């Protein structure tokens, strides 16, 4: 579902992300780990063509579309509908004066879907949210609910790929466990491809099949999660692991 | 006698209490205060710092009630370490550190910065010119300037990268002060605190030695917290009970989330002793051990 | 991860490509220079009256023509800028000093002190600004000083309101709590932490307001309550030339344009500054939230 070769993102001549290879298949979960400034979020944004003002080279295919070549219209069709982005604080991305239900209905219509109500009900069920929440405004729901709503929105639109940037790091641990549980289940039930950006190695180790470790814009190590985290080859990966409290 | 102690304090802003009837002793070896956002842990910290007066109950500073005590002595004894963002964005960090120093002791700024592992030349920088970890060290240096006996640490590392976090924790463990650590991060509490209190909806639901608390939690909420923390290579974190249920207004506040809730939980649970700790749960005996 | 404020290098161009703001800034610099250098720039002495050259249309000798007593309009506009800018600067200095001082104290202290200060402020705000200025100007001797006093009296409460709401939000910042825990006395906390961090929105507001003050001063002069003959002042020039508009348009039009351009320049600069500073200053998002209602509900005089 995601296929990246020799992706380079440059801002003002400086390379901020350099990813030689990254593949995520249906039903797979790949995690990019690293600290702030490692380029992990930039990589994620580049996959959806959202790195404005940057010089991007290489080959990026998401859901069969060449992101770097495709015309903006085609990109917009992919974004949201087939490949959904889930951010750290979704509340900030939701229009504050619009009820969640209205928001979801609009999004469905925007992508030419006329099966509004049943799709919404199913999506809300998939993320274990009470449909009554659709009548609330963004500020009236908790962080965990907002995050699951963002996932429900992706599900309703029929996303095949979810790109999540630190989706749980602003949440309490118990809530984080719940959101992670939802993501894991959807991955199996719907064959979702999941690309997760996170700084939390422990969390990543429990959910990802493969891991890319990034530092200063470069991938320093990658491979199956179990191997990378059990026998880290790169000193930086070791440092990250030792830092776990 | 402990330096600082809360006795049956109820705290709130305006009329609505957010912390109910909490008794907490800041004993030796570090005390952890664990809770999720909205549990009232930061409000409690503000009361311990004398920034908030209890609606009822007392904060004891030695053998005096805090609001009647000598504030100058108190401010020298008890200092906060907030998140790295607690530096004035417009002030050079050296001045921030020097703020509490008498005029003739300004030379100590360099000493203090060195003590927290910073190059003294950084004193001329402003906060945004430092990394998150460096800022957090400055915050610690500022607190150490008055020579406190107790540090009240409010999520001191949660905004930092893991490698930086580890170094800050090393620094904090090496300091010769008592500490009250407020956090939602159980792993950090385990490292820094001999005793811990778990707060839910403004009430202490369990307290006791940190090791015991995490090894065999007696309260279903403590257990839910522990099991929700992902462990390296471990099983996926588990969500126990419904996390989105609001705290119940009557009876046990946790009962709407609790997988063990029973009719008896509609009565408020008393805080009772069990296996060397205090727990407020009717069904503590039924909490599975592992 | 943590989001830092963008470095200056990236936000400075945010102001510069805003061509309107840059245009405003250039215009203001020109107006100020013209006013300061008036004695050297002016083609004729300030009060030189040439009865024989009354109401001459714009020409090579008199670019903006002459007025009804034969004075060069360009000369009077250059000197008039001094009066208008002096009035604006004085009003803003007095209002900001009084308003911000009261505002940060109210915002930081909260409680009864805030209530007292804000109620007094509300009383001043309850009077329609122009009417209060008018009443004052009628009671006192008309003149430049009266204009300054009359406008400042109605202007300062806005700064109290603005800075009180900003200071109240600054007062809850962790660095203020940290200072309190260090035992720093309240006046020093206000001076060191609250005041400097509350100033950004005030500066923006000052720039936005300068145009308003110039307009109000011109209005008072126009009504005969401000600057008096023979002082060169733009509002006064418009008033004295108004009957001639259909026959000798230049007598009214050029001072009118001077008022308009200067007020406009301050406004666009203020808007530009607001946009740029909101993004630059760390944690400015909350400041913006508290600042906008205050400036949005402000009537344009």
From TrEMBL, chain A:
Subcellular location: Cell membrane
Assigned keywords, A-Z: ATP-binding, Cell membrane, Membrane, Nucleotide-binding, Transport
UniProt keyword Cytoplasm, yes or no: no
Any one annotated GO CC term: plasma membrane
Main location: membrane
Molecular-function GO terms, alphabetical: ATP binding; ATP hydrolysis activity
Entry keyword Nuclease: no
SUPFAM superfamilies attached to this UniProt entry: P-loop containing nucleoside triphosphate hydrolases
Membrane topology, from the record: Peripheral membrane protein
Domain ABC transporter: 2-241
Domain of life: Bacteria
InterPro entries, sorted: AAA+_ATPase, ABC_Ni/Peptide_Import, ABC_transporter-like_ATP-bd, ABC_transporter-like_CS, P-loop_NTPase
Family: Belongs to the ABC transporter superfamily.
Protein name: ABC transporter ATP-binding protein
From TrEMBL, chain B:
UniProt source species: Nonomuraea terrae
Source domain of life: Bacteria
Protein name per the record: ABC transporter ATP-binding protein
A Gene Ontology BP annotation from the UniProt entry: peptide transport
Ranges of residues in domain ABC transporter: 4-226
Family membership: Belongs to the ABC transporter superfamily.
Pfam families referenced in this protein's UniProt entry, alphabetically: ABC_tran, oligo_HPY
UniProt entry keywords in alphabetical sequence: ATP-binding, Nucleotide-binding, Transport
Keyword Lyase: no
A molecular function GO annotation: ATP binding
UniProtKB/TrEMBL annotation, chain C:
Regions of compositional bias (Basic and acidic residues) in chain numbering: 285-301
Pfam families for this protein: BPD_transp_1 (PF00528), OppC_N (PF12911)
Keyword vocabulary terms for this entry: Cell membrane, Membrane, Transmembrane, Transmembrane helix, Transport
Stored SUPFAM superfamilies: MetI-like
Residues that span the membrane, as ranges: 20-42, 85-111, 123-156, 249-270
Location of the protein in the cell: Cell membrane
UniProt-listed PROSITE patterns: ABC_TM1
Annotated ranges, domain ABC transmembrane type-1: 81-270
Superkingdom assignment: Bacteria
Example GO biological process: transmembrane transport
InterPro entries (alphabetical): BP-dependent_transpt_permease, MetI-like, MetI-like_sf, OppC_N
UniProt region (Disordered), positions on chain: 282-301
Gene Ontology annotations for the cellular component aspect, listed alphabetically: plasma membrane
Membrane topology type: Multi-pass membrane protein
Family: Belongs to the binding-protein-dependent transport system permease family.
Name recorded for this polypeptide: ABC transporter permease
Species whose genome carries this gene: Nonomuraea terrae
């Amino acid at each position: 579902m995601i296929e990246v070769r020799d992706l380079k993102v440059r801002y003002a001549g400086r390379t901020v992300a350099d990813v030689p290879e990254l593949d995520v298949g249906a039903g797979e979960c790949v995690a990019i780990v690293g600290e702030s400034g490692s380029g992990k979020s930039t990589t994620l944004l580049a996959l959806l063509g959202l790195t404005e003002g940057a010089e991007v080279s290489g080959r990026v295919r998401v859901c069969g579309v060449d992101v770097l070549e495709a015309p903006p219209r085609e990109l917009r069709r992919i974004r949201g509908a087939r490949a959904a982005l889930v951010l750290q604080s979704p509340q900030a991305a939701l229009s504050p004066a619009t009820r969640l239900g209205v928001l979801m209905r609009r999004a469905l219509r925007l992508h030419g879907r006329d099966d509004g109500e049943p799709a919404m009900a199913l999506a809300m069920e998939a993320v274990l949210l009470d449909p009554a929440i659709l009548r609330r405004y963004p500020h009236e729901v908790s962080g965990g609910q907002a995050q699951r709503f963002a996932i429900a929105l992706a599900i309703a639109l029929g996303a095949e790929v979810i790109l999540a940037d630190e989706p749980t790091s602003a949440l309490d641990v118990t809530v984080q466990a719940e959101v992670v549980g939802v993501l894991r289940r959807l991955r199996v039930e719907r064959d979702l491809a999941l690309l997760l950006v996170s700084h939390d190695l422990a969390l990543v180790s429990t959910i990802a099949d493969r891991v890319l470790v990034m530092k200063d814009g470069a991938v320093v190590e990658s491979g199956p999660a179990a191997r990378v985290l059990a026998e880290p080859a790169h000193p930086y990966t070791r440092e990250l692991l030792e830092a776990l409290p | 006698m402990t330096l600082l102690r809360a006795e049956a304090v109820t705290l709130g802003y305006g009329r609505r209490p957010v912390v109910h009837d909490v008794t907490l002793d800041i004993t030796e070896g570090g005390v952890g205060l664990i809770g999720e956002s909205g549990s009232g842990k930061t409000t409690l910290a503000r009361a311990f710092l004398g920034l908030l007066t209890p609606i009822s109950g007392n904060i004891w500073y030695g053998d005096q009630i805090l609001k009647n005590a000598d504030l100058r002595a108190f401010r020298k004894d008890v200092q906060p370490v907030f998140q790295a963002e607690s530096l004035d964005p417009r002030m050079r960090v050296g001045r921030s550190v020097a703020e509490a120093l008498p005029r003739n002791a300004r030379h100590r700024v360099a000493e203090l910065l060195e003590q927290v592992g910073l190059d003294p030349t950084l004193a001329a920088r402003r906060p945004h010119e430092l990394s998150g970890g460096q800022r957090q060290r400055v915050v610690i240096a500022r607190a150490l300037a008055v020579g406190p006996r107790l540090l009240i640490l409010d999520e001191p590392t949660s905004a930092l990268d893991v490698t930086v976090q580890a170094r800050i924790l090393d620094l904090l463990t090496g300091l010769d002060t008592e500490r009250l650590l407020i956090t939602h991060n159980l792993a950090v509490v385990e490292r820094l605190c001999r005793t811990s209190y778990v707060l839910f909806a403004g009430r202490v639901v369990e307290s006791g030695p940190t090791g015991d608390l995490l090894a065999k939690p007696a309260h279903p909420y403590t257990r839910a917290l522990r099991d929700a923390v992902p462990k390296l290579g471990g099983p996926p974190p588990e969500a126990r009970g419904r996390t989105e249920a609001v705290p119940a207004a009557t009876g046990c506040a946790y009962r709407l989330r609790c997988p063990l809730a029973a009719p008896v939980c509609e009565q408020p649970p008393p805080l009772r002793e069990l296996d060397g700790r205090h727990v407020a749960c009717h069904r503590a005996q039924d909490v599975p051990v592992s | 991860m943590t989001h830092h404020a963008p470095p200056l290098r990236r936000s400075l161009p945010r102001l510069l490509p805003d061509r309107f703001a840059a245009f405003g800034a250039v215009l203001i610099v020109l107006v100020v220079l013209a006013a300061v250098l008036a004695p050297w720039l002016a083609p004729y002495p300030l009060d030189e009256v040439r009865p024989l050259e009354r109401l001459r249309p714009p020409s090579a000798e008199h670019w903006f023509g002459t007025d009804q007593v034969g004075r060069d309009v360009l000369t009077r506009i250059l000197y008039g800028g001094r009066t208008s800018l002096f009035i604006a600067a004085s009003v803003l200095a007095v209002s900001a000093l009084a308003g911000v001082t009261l505002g940060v104290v109210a915002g930081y202290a909260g409680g009864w002190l805030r209530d007292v200060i804000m109620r007094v402020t509300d009383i001043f705000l309850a009077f329609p600004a122009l009417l209060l200025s008018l009443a004052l100007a009628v009671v006192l001797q008309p003149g430049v000083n009266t204009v300054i006093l009359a406008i400042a009296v109605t202007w300062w409460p806005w700064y109290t309101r603005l800075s009180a709401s900003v200071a109240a939000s600054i007062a809850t910042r962790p660095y203020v709590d940290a200072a309190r825990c260090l035992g720093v006395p309240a006046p020093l906390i206000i001076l060191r932490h609250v005041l400097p961090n509350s100033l950004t929105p005030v500066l923006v507001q000052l720039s936005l307001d300068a145009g308003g003050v110039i307009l109000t001063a011109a209005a008072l002069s126009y009504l005969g309550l401000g600057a008096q003959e023979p002082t060169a002042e733009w509002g006064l020039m418009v008033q004295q030339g108004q009957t001639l508009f259909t026959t000798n348009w230049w007598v009214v039009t050029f001072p009118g344009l001077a008022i308009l351009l200067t007020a406009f320049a301050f406004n666009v600069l203020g808007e530009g500054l607001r946009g740029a500073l909101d993004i630059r200053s760390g944690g400015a998002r909350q400041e913006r939230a508290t600042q906008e209602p205050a400036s949005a509900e402000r009537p344009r005089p």
